[in-house]
Amino acid sequence: MIRSLLLCLFMIAAAQTARADDDQVCFAGSAKNLQASIAACTAILRRPLLTPEWKLRALSARGHYHERNHRLELALSDYNTAVTTDPSDRGARIGRAEIFVSMGKFREAQRDIDTLQKMFPNDPELLNNSCWIHAALWELDAALADCNRSLALAPREANTLDSLGFVHLRLRNYSRALADYNAALAIKPGSDSSLYVRGVVKRKLGDLAGGNADIKAAGKINPEVAESFAPYGLTQGN
């Protein structure tokens, strides 16, 4: 009897430890072991009596890991389920919008951002997201307005300065674009995307050596950076 009770207690403790391990790996996972992070989130989602809040967290986390693993359809499926679970969840909608952008589905991405902006008006992050998507769609007046509104609310936000640089690049205002990317990199020096596009801008201004140096530095930080900008028509040869 005592042995059976001890065995039962041991099994309960082991199960609790496994659950705690899954929570740690899923919600604080490492990009170095994406499969382990995905497996941990999946284990959480298979738990009985899972609360909606916990389900949302696990779905969004797993969607993020699928995106990092270049499995965009799986990421989109997780974010779709998360948005269905709670249409007002900010993280799930932003995550889904990012997947749509990666897929080149900019209109779908804009719809998610528009929905969030109705709930969170004058939010600098959402304005920046909207700026980037409008720029991707060549809706440059709307993009410029969104970026300027975002920077009025958060003047030293590197991501928004980066987006503004992209808008000015598409407007062929290369001097302004260079100033924007310089400002972004002064705040966030290790940004591979800002370095890469600044390199493209420098080349357009005739500074081939400086442009090539930026592009090379960006590639060392992220070997896939050039590929990520190819859908926008931005290549080293531009």
What does this structure look like?
There is one protein chain. With 238 residues, the protein is mainly alpha-helical. It has 2 domains: 19-103, Serine Threonine Protein Phosphatase 5, Tetratricopeptide repeat (Alpha Horseshoe), CATH 1.25.40; 122-238, Tetratricopeptide repeat domain (Serine Threonine Protein Phosphatase 5, Tetratricopeptide repeat), CATH 1.25.40.10. The chain contains 13 helices and no strands. It starts with a helix and ends in a 9-residue tail after the last helix.
Corresponding CATH superfamily of the largest domain: Tetratricopeptide repeat domain
**Number of folding domains?**
2
What percent strand? under 5%
**Number of DSSP strands?**
0
Mean pLDDT: 90
Helix content range: over 70%
What order do the SSEs take from the amino end to the carboxyl end, as H and E?
Answer: HHHHHHHHHHHHH
CATH topology of the largest domain: Serine Threonine Protein Phosphatase 5, Tetratricopeptide repeat
Assigned CATH class of the largest domain: Mainly Alpha
Which runs of at least 5 residues are low in confidence (pLDDT < 50)?
Answer: 5-18
Key structural traits:
single chain; 238 residues; mainly alpha; Serine Threonine Protein Phosphatase 5, Tetratricopeptide repeat; 2 domains; 13 helices
Give the SSE layout.
Elements: H1 2-27, H2 34-45, H3 52-68, H4 72-85, H5 90-102, H6 106-119, H7 124-136, H8 140-153, H9 158-170, H10 174-187, H11 192-204, H12 208-221, H13 225-229
Helix pairs in contact: 1-2, 2-3, 3-4, 3-5, 4-5, 5-6, 6-7, 7-8, 7-9, 8-9, 9-10, 9-11, 10-11, 11-12
